[in-house]
Design brief:
This protein has a single domain, classed as Ribonuclease Z/Hydroxyacylglutathione hydrolase-like (Metallo-beta-lactamase, Chain A, 4-Layer Sandwich), CATH 3.60.15.10. The chain is built from six helices and 14 strands. Strand 10, helix 4 and strand 11 form a beta-alpha-beta unit. Bound molecules: nickel (II) ion (NI) and manganese (II) ion (MN).
């Protein structure tokens, strides 16, 4: 599995010979100015919720690549109305088998209005299970006790957790979330992009290390293989 960080909450993951792209928000992100959205591969674009900082580049990348969108029903319908008709609608607790593995749409505690004010359904996260490994992608969320349920009934290898605080859980709650979902390896997201969500990398990594866990805070454009 190859994991590439494109800034904010945007990750690309090569899995089962397919390219998954999560919550693409690149062209409006000044910190991701070196990333060309026209060079990002995508067979699937997974969208956790409707906020601008998660959907901004969905349309452009979907039109270029012909990727299939995976999200909640409301968001898939909103993009279908824009002419992006390759979409797979889901709702909370539902799982579907794709050619790269399975996707379950799970709870998040957040909001989800789309950029034009349309309702974006309820926000979510994803559990991905595949022959190459299982992981949780939290989306934007508060720490919540349902994460414990995810950990008890899924054998997760690692997780992508928001940790910038203010709009989502912060570093301390993300560490509790890592315990709840039962992972020792975490990739951070939703930090540093705006003034409200700047974190101290050394302090955050030290907190995870003290708990026997590894926190990856990749540079924008950096890839790692697991
Ligand atoms: Ni959000
Ligand atoms: Mn966000």
């Amino acid at each position: 599995m190859k994991i590439t960080f494109y800034g904010h909450a945007t990750y690309g993951i090569e899995l089962g010979g397919k390219n998954l792209l999560f919550d693409p928000f690149i062209s409006p992100n000044e910190k991701a100015g070196d990333i060309d959205i026209n060079s990002i591969p995508a067979d699937y674009i997974l969208i956790t919720h409707g906020h601008q900082d998660h959907v901004a580049d969905v349309e452009a990348i979907a039109r270029r690549t012909g990727a299939t969108l995976i999200s909640n029903f409301e968001i898939i319908s909103w993009f279908a109305n824009k002419g992006i008709e390759k979409g797979h609608p889901m709702n909370h607790g539902g799982k579907w088998n794709f050619d790269f593995g399975s996707v379950k749409y799970v709870n998040a505690v957040h909001s989800s209005t789309l950029p034009d004010g349309s309702p974006g359904g309820n926000p979510g996260g994803f559990i991905i299970e595949s022959a190459e490994g299982n992981f949780y992608y939290s989306g934007d969320t508060a720490l919540h006790y349902d994460m414990k349920l995810l950990g008890e009934y899924h054998n997760l290898d690692f997780a992508f957790l928001c940790m910038g605080d203010n709009f989502t859980m912060g570093v301390d709650d993300a560490l509790i979330a890592a315990n709840f979902v039962g992972v020792d390896r975490v990739f951070g997201m939703h930090y540093d992009t705006f003034g409200y969500i700047v974190i101290n990398h050394d302090v955050a990594k030290a907190k995870f290390q003290k708990a026997g866990k590894t926190l990856h805070l990749l540079d924008i454009g950096e890839s790692t293989k697991l």
